[in-house]
Structures are given as structure tokens and as C-alpha cells.
Amino acid sequence: MSITSKLCKSFVCGAVFMAASVTATQASEAMIALPSWGSACSASTYTAYLGSGIWTDYIGMTDENPGGITSMAYFSDNRGTGQSFSNLSGLAPLLKSISTPATGQTAASSTAMGIIPLQYSGPDGATLTFDMTLTADLYRPGDTWARVYGAAMILQEDIIFDPYLANYYEYGGVLASTELGSTLTDPALIQTDSLSVIVNDGDIVHIAMSLSTGSGWAPAYADAFSTFTGSVSVDVGSVDSLVPEPASIALSGLAGLLIISRRR
């Protein structure tokens, strides 16, 4: 695959690298090939100790869906509420996230992410452009805090789905990347950015996005449910999503079960 990258912005994701990897042997032994795309969401709440800067007693939920078009997470208790949503039905993921603490010594957070494979058809040397928009509302009066963070990447063809986008800097394969977001008291935050790469006929790239919100000490909140998404275009030729229709996913899952049944 011959893809050269052109970064509109060069950032390093602030997320912590997570220890997640799949060896070549494990991948080859899998009955069903590991997907390169999928969605994942998480939501959680915390307890804060005044003046210590320490957050403890994490409770939450995670919905990781490799090869899945949608995922969602919702968690709420007496400390706050976190909610996130991911949908891969278009050419770019559509992500939503909102976090709201309930009291003065609590915090909430939520994260959504998605990766979509795209294939280009047309003359060699075309420019594929990914335009994105992050819309959010942050409120952090006094000593409270709120933040929203979005990351976007264009990844190469040969990847395995990982819900932690920062890991791709370690694995390799990041063709272009950028970050958006704020910790400021912007009443209505709207940010845009753009990434582009050069593609040849038949090339496959992956559009990857992640959105997280967090806020601590009521009445603060971080609301990005109005979303983080984008559009993909090429200056010549066409680009299509390789995410199968829901019915195709169901049939492939059934075929996998039949293979396993016959092997038994």
C-alpha cells in the first residue's frame, strides 16, 4: 500500500498508553479474523478528597464492540452521571459524551470512540480529506472543573481494532492525527479541524475518532452530546465505507457459529 501522509496539525495524544496487544500467533489461531474496525464506550463516577487532588472509588461500565456499528455506556449513582454513544453508519464516526457530578466532592467521566475502514476508487494520487467538528458546552464555576477532549486519526490498512487510539502511536500506522477540546469555561465550544492523505486506487484507510468528557464538583458539567463527527471527501474518484450492513454482520456471526459447531 502506497499512502503518503500530510498532517494539517501534528499533535501527540495526551491519553495514557494502555497495555493492549495481540500477537501474530494469537491472530492466526483465531477462528474468526480480528476486525480492524469497531466502536467502544465507557462511563464512570469517582470520589474526590478535598485538597488532595486524589480521585478514588472508581465505579463504571464499558461497552467494547469490535466489529460493531454502535456502542453505548450509561452509568449513574449518587456521585454523578456519565453517558456516551458511538455510531459508525456513515463515512466518519458520530460520537457523543456527557459527564455531570452530583455533589461537591464527586466527579464523572465518559468516553466514546469508533474506527471506520474506507476504500478509495479512482485515479492514483488523489487527496482524501477528513473534516471534523466538535461541539460542546462546558460549565465550571469557581473551583469546579470541566473538560472535553477529541482525537482524530487517519490510520493505514493493516491494523487491529483497539479501543485506545493512543496505542496506535506505539503500534505504528498513524498517517495523520489531530486533537481538539478545551478545559476553559466556553459557554458553547465549536472547534473544527481537517486531516488529509494521498491515496491510490484500491487503498484502504481507517478513520478513527475518540471523544471524552469529564467534570468534577457540582454544579460543573461537560456536555458534548451535540457531537463530535466529520465528513470525508476526495478531490477525484470515490470513497466507500467497508463497514457491512447490519444484516451482513448478523449472517457472518451465524456463519462463525456454524464453523465452531462443525469443528466440535
Mean pLDDT, rounded to whole units? 81
From the alpha carbons, calculate the radius of gyration and give it in angstroms. 20 Å
Rounded to the nearest angstrom, the distance between the terminal CA atoms is 38 Å
Low-confidence stretches: 1-31, 247-264
Specify the helix fraction band: 10-25%
3D structure, described in words:
By secondary structure, this protein is mainly beta. It has three helices and 14 strands. The protein has helices at 24-29, 167-171, 246-263, and strands at residues 4-6, 38-49, 54-66, 70-77, 80-87, 94-101, 106-121, 126-139, 145-155, 174-182, 189-199, 204-216, 221-234, 238-241. The strands form two sheets. A seven-stranded antiparallel sheet has the order 1-11-8-13-6-5-4, with no helix packed on it. Strands 2, 3, 7, 9, 10, 12 and 14 form a seven-stranded antiparallel sheet that branches. β4 (70-77) and β5 (80-87) form a beta hairpin. It starts with a strand and ends with a helix. Residues 1-31 and 247-264 have low confidence and may be disordered.
